[in-house]
Amino acid sequence: MASVTALPLDKVAAYSIVIGGMISVIPNAYFARQVFRYTGAAYAREVTQAFYRGESGKFITTLGLFAATFAFVRPLQVIVLFLAYLIVMLLNAVLLATHRRGVQTA
């Protein structure tokens, strides 16, 4: 939504916002896919291994996406990229806290 708003004003800022958001979303999606593959006490070992695998994969994917962005995307507004990345990460935390509070009161 922010990139659509920024598109008429500054094309470089618009795609920097999209890239920054995706650098946050893609590794988190990988982590979630790894972690929620197994459920239940019978799979305790697999769940633990999935957490380690998911977290390390998330870290490596984040580094790789930032490296690829800096290597291949020109021109780029770096400040906008990092702000979008941080805002999406904060939004993730806020939505999780809001959802958790709603579940506890229900």
Automatic annotation (TrEMBL):
Record-annotated membrane-spanning stretches: 12-31, 52-73, 79-98
Predominant place of localization: membrane
Localization terms from the record: Cell membrane
InterPro entries hit by this protein: ATP_synth_I
Lineage: superkingdom: Bacteria
UniProtKB keywords: Cell membrane, Membrane, Transmembrane, Transmembrane helix
Protein name: ATP synthase subunit I
Organism: Zhongshania borealis
